[in-house]
Amino acid sequence: MLSLKGRALRLLAQREHSRVELARKLAPHVQEGEDLDAVLDALQARGFIDEQRVVESLLHRRAGKLGAARIRQELQAKGLDAAAVQQAVAQLQGSELERAREVWRKKFGEPAADAAGRARQMRFLAARGFGAEAIRRVVSGTEED
Which of 9, 38, 79, 133 is 20 to 30 A from residue 2's alpha carbon, by CA? Predict the structure, then answer.
């Protein structure tokens, strides 16, 4: 039977987790006499839990596939500091059009022949969290930046 610290370290070995995520995942495993907050405090003090690493990890894994709005939602779901989330999203804004164009190119490769096809392509990009202006420019084939 794993201790809370053991479970936390196993989760952290798989990928970066925020303190809120770890607390949510470990809460069902707390036994009588165990202190979840003390375990999390100890892990944070030793540098095993680091919000900045969580943000960087998520950006590295997901920015190539998702728009800023979807990444903001995922960061917020991890319970991260609002300032860190805002900074990460601001960092993504500059490359939104290029990332949307690349996702669109991988999925579709060529402009749609009719309005229904364009609408389908726009919904695809919107579901991935790209902004309306970037979607419009990518689907219409507008190249100016």
Answer: 79
CA 145 to CA 127: how far, in whole Å?
A: 23
Whether residue 45 is contained in a domain is answered as yes
Three-state helix/strand/coil letters over the chain: CCCHHHHHHHHHHHCCCCHHHHHHHHHHHCCCCCCHHHHHHHHHHCCCCCHHHHHHHHHHHHCCCCCHHHHHHHHHHCCCCHHHHHHHHHHHHCCHHHHHHHHHHHHCCCCCCCHHHHHHHHHHHHHCCCCHHHHHHHHHCCCCC
Q: What is the CATH number of the domain that holds 120?
A: 1.10.10
Tell me the pLDDT tens digit for each residue of 45-64: 999 999 999 999 999 999 99
105 located within any domain: yes
Last residue of a domain, one of 14, 29, 49: 49
- Number of domains the chain contains: 3
